[in-house]
């Protein structure tokens, strides 16, 4: 509980400080997002979530301190740590290898083709086994990423080589 309160205060101070710095950056216009827009959005979200966490933990702390627990119940809750069994301890390394493979094939097959494959592989490694959900997740997330980077941010993405380049040019 104290750790969450400390974390909330740190997040509030951090985001508040950098929010002041981000306001000084140019925001851009309606047509083009400036360099200060995304930091402002992210820092505002961090500040809001930090305040929500702080309020939630203070309410929990107030309820907890208002209740009088007998010493036996308190001793039981303090001395019984929950041990969790790690089922697949190496999944993060597999996801890291998939991401490294994504970075390697990105210049060859392009963002349009590589991103759905990355999403598909990562979701599969992390435990999503239903083929319909895998395909839906990979295609939906790829469309969202394409829209964000290509349309909203106007970021030039790797188009790939050969037929993949032709496909990318056809799509955008």
UniProtKB/TrEMBL annotation:
Keywords: Membrane, Transmembrane, Transmembrane helix
Any Pfam family: TctB
Residues in DUF1468 domain copies: 7-158
Superkingdom of origin: Bacteria
Segments passing through the bilayer: 38-59, 93-114, 134-155
Protein name (database record): Tripartite tricarboxylate transporter TctB family protein
Classification lineage: Bacteria, Bacillati, Bacillota, Bacilli, Bacillales
């Amino acid at each position: 509980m104290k750790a969450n309160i400390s974390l909330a205060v740190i997040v509030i101070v951090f985001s508040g400080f950098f929010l002041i710095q981000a306001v000084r950056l140019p925001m851009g216009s309606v047509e083009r997002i400036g360099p200060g827009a995304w930091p402002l959005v992210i820092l505002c979200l961090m500040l809001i979530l930090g305040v929500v966490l702080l309020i939630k933990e203070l309410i929990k702390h107030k309820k907890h301190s208002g209740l009088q627990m007998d010493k036996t119940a308190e001793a039981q809750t303090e001395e019984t740590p929950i041990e969790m069994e790690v089922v697949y301890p190496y999944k993060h390394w597999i996801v890291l290898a998939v991401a490294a493979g994504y970075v390697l094939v990105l210049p060859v097959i392009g963002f349009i083709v590589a991103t759905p494959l990355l999403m598909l592989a990562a979701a599969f490694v992390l435990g999503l086994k239903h083929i319909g959900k895998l395909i839906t997740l990979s295609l939906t997330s790829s469309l969202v990423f394409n829209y964000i980077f290509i349309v909203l941010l106007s970021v030039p993405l790797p188009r790939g080589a050969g037929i993949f380049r032709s496909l990318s040019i056809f799509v955008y």
